[in-house]
Design goal:
It contains eleven helices and 21 strands. With 381 residues, the protein is of the alpha+beta class. It has three domains: 85 residues, Rossmann fold; 55 residues, ATP-grasp fold, A domain (Dna Ligase, domain 1); 199 residues, ATP-grasp fold, B domain (D-amino Acid Aminotransferase, Chain A, domain 1), CATH 3.30.470. The strands form four sheets. Strands 10, 11, 12, 13, 14, 15, 16, 18 and 20 form a nine-stranded antiparallel sheet that branches. The chain has a five-stranded parallel sheet with strand order 3-2-1-4-5, sandwiched between helices. Helix 1 crosses helix 9, helix 3 packs antiparallel against helix 4 and helix 4 crosses helix 5. The mean pLDDT is 95.
Length: 381
């Protein structure tokens, strides 16, 4: 095996946003040398990567040229050119997640079909070509329409309450899903290395911003029964085994009023629902991702202390150079750990950072997090 700690061992990551940035921070601890490809010359990773390359991760030539001298290539964002990655894999570059798996996950329709084909529970759905198909659907309203490709962080997703609301629908190939009688939204992050070793992080609970349709709070551990947690872990384990995927997989789940656990969506990378692991768990999701793609022993995922994560989103009217209000006040609080992502420009609901709040009592941590939300604002000046 090559010396992974040597500068001659080249790791490439497609995407230079906050997920890449937090991965690089973990990479320094193992003296790993990572190059980044991103279309923005001002991406959060620009000053942290061993080499930062400006290029389009959706462009075949850019991805191929970037990856051809690498030992391992991975992603921080799944909307990349998987055909170029497949060619690199053919030429002997290790690519994780594997390109054929990435193709399934990039298309929410193929994702849903994979669950059905493998007897993995998910909400009722239908694949459609245009918005007229929604009117002819047998699904009960409300339905949620998701673009099959290029949707993320609440973009490309919308709720349609009735046939009279179809003028709001996307007129593109989509998945429509029947609404779930929802009790809670949950997530489990799980990892698998080439040896087939699998470890999952403890289940977390998610609370969404209703306007942005993005995670606002995360609670670790989730307040669910042992039997619900066991179902979630079994589901995530079956899923990553059936995919035979190497790397980190975030499995977003619905818990319905009947106590059933259903797969919502998956992401083959580090994920917003694992950020609390930096301070709250013995191994962070970013360190685990590196361990998985380098075929190292997977780390201990146990919770060190209960935690709450608060996403820092741009204010509704913010547009311009980012300005952070309230930071001096929250830094006086015990057990509060802010992470800013290095984004110079703020937009409405753009993810600008997160704050992790630790406390032996999860209810006290929740109370403190809700207080912090009223204090910290990301505005523009």
């Amino acid at each position: 095996m090559k010396n992974i700690h040597s500068q001659k061992f080249k790791i490439g990551i497609l995407g230079g946003g906050q997920l890449g940035r937090m991965t690089l921070q973990e990479a320094y601890n193992l003296n790993l040398h990572i190059d980044i490809l991103d279309p923005s010359s001002n991406a959060p990773c620009k000053n942290l990567a061993n080499e930062f390359v400006v290029g389009d991760f959706k462009n075949y030539d850019d991805v191929y040229a970037f990856g051809k001298d690498k030992d391992v290539v991975s992603i921080e964002f799944e909307d990349v050119n998987s055909d170029a990655l497949a060619q690199l894999e053919k030429e002997g570059v290790k690519v994780f997640p594997q390109p054929h798996i990435l193709k399934i996950i990039q298309d929410k329709g193929l994702q849903k079909q994979f669950y059905t084909d493998n007897d993995l529970p998910t909400s009722k759905f239908q694949l459609i070509e245009n918005k007229e198909d929604i009117a002819n659907s047998n699904l009960s309203f409300p339905v949620f329409q998701k673009l099959r490709t290029s949707g993320y962080d609440g973009y490309g997703v919308q709720r349609i309450d009735s046939k009279q609301s179809l003028d709001q629908a996307f007129d593109k190939p989509s998945v429509i899903e029947e609404g779930v009688d929802l009790e809670k939204e949950l997530s489990v992050v799980i990892a698998r290395n080439e040896k087939g070793e699998i470890k999952h992080f403890p289940l977390v609970e998610l609370e969404f911003n209703p306007k942005a349709n993005m995670v606002e709070f995360l609670f670790s551990p989730a307040n669910v029964s042992d039997s619900v947690a066991a179902k979630a872990y079994e589901l995530a384990t079956n899923l990553i085994q059936k995919l035979e995927m190497v790397g980190l997989l975030a499995v977003e789940l619905f818990l319905n009023k009947k106590g059933e656990v259903l797969i919502n969506e998956i992401a083959p990378r580090s994920h917003n629902s694992g950020h609390q692991s930096i301070e709250g768990n013995y191994t962070s999701q970013f360190a685990q991702h590196l361990r998985a793609i380098l075929n190292l022993p997977l780390g201990n995922t146990d919770i060190k202390i209960p935690s709450v994560m608060l996403n820092l989103l741009g204010e509704e009217n913010a547009n311009g150079t980012a300005y952070y209000e309230g930071f001096q006040e929250i830094l006086e609080e015990k057990g509060v750990y802010p992470h800013l992502y290095g984004k110079e420009q703020v937009k409405p609901y753009r993810k600008m950072g997160h704050i992790t709040i630790l406390d032996k009592d999860i209810e006290r941590a929740k109370e403190k997090a809700r207080k912090i939300k009223t204090i910290v604002k990301v505005t523009s000046k």
